[in-house]
Every structure is written in structure tokens, then in C-alpha cells.
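Dear H.,

Thanks for agreeing to be a second pair of eyes. The structure we're designing against is below in C-alpha cell form, covering all 177 positions.
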């Protein structure tokens, strides 16, 4: 997974992977039809892990603020701790695939976020909840990419990055926004 965690994840080849793992160049083809198939399977695993993290983070939250904070931090921590999976989940060639298992895994994570937004802001329509989820996901994805590039680290510690993100998400979820 560390090969996917770096800035050149989009360059991963079976040949490079087999060299790193010390296996024959034909070994990956016993499990995956091609490189994209491998990446799609990693993305499915990543979305399933993310969904599990989001579910776990939601347990025991007593207030809307604690729910928002728990889910925001869980998402940021997942992206930081599971960088390889996170990279695979959002590679353009993976996102372009029409694989039902991938769609299902991604949708479960998205719906968990939608459910939390609907809980926090009960008066939104289903479409408004979905649009708000896309906005939040986009914002957090930006924070994660800026963190990975080192841009935020020059301005904020990781703890401050998380606090900044949580406060921004709370503001985005305030009624009237």
C-alpha cells in the first residue's frame, strides 16, 4: 500500500509492483485481470474501511456537534492513516470504472454522510442533503490533498488542521448555509 501512498500512485505498474514484492511478473494476473482491476479492488476495500470508520465514529455521539466532529475527524484520520487506499479510491481511472461493487461501496460511505447531515439539519430535502454532502466531501478532500502536499503543514499543525476542518464543516452545516 505504501506505493499508492506516494505522489506517483497513478504510475503504479504491475512490473514495479512485482519487483517490490519479489514475485514473478505473472503473479498479479492470477488474481487481477490488469492494473485497473487491482486498483478498483483496492478502492472497494478502501470505501468499505472508510464506511466502517464512519459507522464506528458515530457510535455514542450525543449531540449534533459531537457527531459532526467525530465524522470529520474519522474521515481525515482515515485519509491520513490509509493513504494508499485513499489514493486508490479517487484515482481518475478508478472513478471512471462502472463496477457495481465499487459503486455500492462508495455509495454506502456517501449515504452515511448524508444520513448524518439529515440528522443535523432535519429540514433539508433529499437533494439538498446530497448537495451538502458533496460540498463537505469536496472540502475535506481538498484539506487532505493540501495536507499530503505539505501546503497546510507549513501553516497549521495536524491538530490545528483537524480543528480548522471541524469548525468549517460545522459552519457549512449551520441552518441557512
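And this is the sequence the design step returned. I haven't edited it by hand at all.
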Amino acid at each position: 500500500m505504501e506505493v499508492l501512498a506516494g505522489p506517483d500512485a497513478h504510475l503504479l505498474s504491475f512490473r514495479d509492483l512485482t519487483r517490490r514484492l519479489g514475485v514473478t511478473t505473472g503473479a498479479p494476473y492470477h488474481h487481477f485481470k490488469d492494473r485497473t482491476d487491482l486498483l478498483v479492488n483496492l478502492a472497494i476495500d478502501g470505501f468499505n474501511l472508510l464506511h466502517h470508520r464512519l459507522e464506528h465514529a458515530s457510535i455514542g455521539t450525543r449531540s449534533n456537534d459531537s457527531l459532526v466532529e467525530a465524522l470529520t475527524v474519522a474521515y481525515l484520520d482515515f485519509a491520513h492513516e490509509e493513504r494508499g487506499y485513499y489514493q486508490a479510491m479517487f484515482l481518475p481511472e478508478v472513478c471512471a470504472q462502472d463496477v457495481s461493487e465499487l459503486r455500492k461501496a462508495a455509495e454506502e460511505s456517501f449515504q452515511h454522510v448524508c444520513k448524518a447531515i439529515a440528522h443535523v439539519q432535519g429540514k433539508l430535502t433529499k437533494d439538498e442533503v446530497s448537495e451538502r454532502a458533496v460540498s463537505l466531501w469536496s472540502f475535506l478532500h481538498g484539506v487532505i490533498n493540501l495536507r499530503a502536499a505539505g501546503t497546510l503543514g507549513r501553516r497549521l499543525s495536524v491538530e490545528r488542521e483537524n480543528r480548522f476542518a471541524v469548525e468549517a464543516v460545522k459552519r457549512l452545516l449551520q441552518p441557512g448555509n
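Two observations from my side: The chain has a mean pLDDT of 87. Residues 34-172 form a domain with the Tetracycline Repressor; domain 2 fold (CATH 1.10.357.10).

Warmly,
E.
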